């Protein structure tokens, strides 16, 4: 089972243009859909690129 789950907040290496480096995982699979916590922009990135760029899991599922 994957260590990443929908709803988790993760910190990424590079900052989003809005200035935030925190993202919420919206979809998990071959690709990850993540949403910027600050501005709400959603991005779809391949699993390999996502796993390389994650620094740490900040918060578990909020539900």
In short:
This protein is mainly beta.
Please give the structural blueprint.
Layout lengths: L8 E4 L9 E6 L3 E6 L5 E5 H7 E6 L4
Antiparallel strand pairs: 1-2, 1-5, 2-3, 3-4
Give a structural overview.
The chain has 63 residues and is mostly beta strands. The chain has a single domain (9-59), classed as SH3 type barrels. The chain contains 1 helix and 5 strands, in the order E-E-E-E-H-E. The protein has one helix at residues 47-53, and strands at residues 9-12, 22-27, 31-36, 42-46, 54-59. A 5-stranded antiparallel sheet has the order 4-3-2-1-5, with helices on one face.
Mean pLDDT: 91
**Overall body shape:** globular
Strand order of the largest sheet: 4-3-2-1-5
Radius of gyration: 10 Å
Please name the CATH topology. SH3 type barrels
Amino- and carboxy-terminal Cα gap = 20 Å
Please report the total strand number as a whole number: 5
Which regions have little confidence, pLDDT < 50, spanning 5+ residues? none
Keywords:
63 residues, mainly beta, SH3 type barrels, 5-stranded antiparallel sheet, 5 strands, globular
């Amino acid at each position: 089972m994957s260590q990443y789950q929908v709803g988790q907040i993760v910190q990424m290496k590079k900052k989003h243009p809005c200035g935030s480096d925190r993202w919420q995982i919206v979809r998990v699979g071959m690709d990850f859909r993540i949403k910027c916590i600050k501005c709400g922009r959603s991005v779809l990135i391949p699993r390999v690129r996502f796993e390389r760029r994650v620094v740490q899991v900040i918060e578990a599922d909020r539900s």
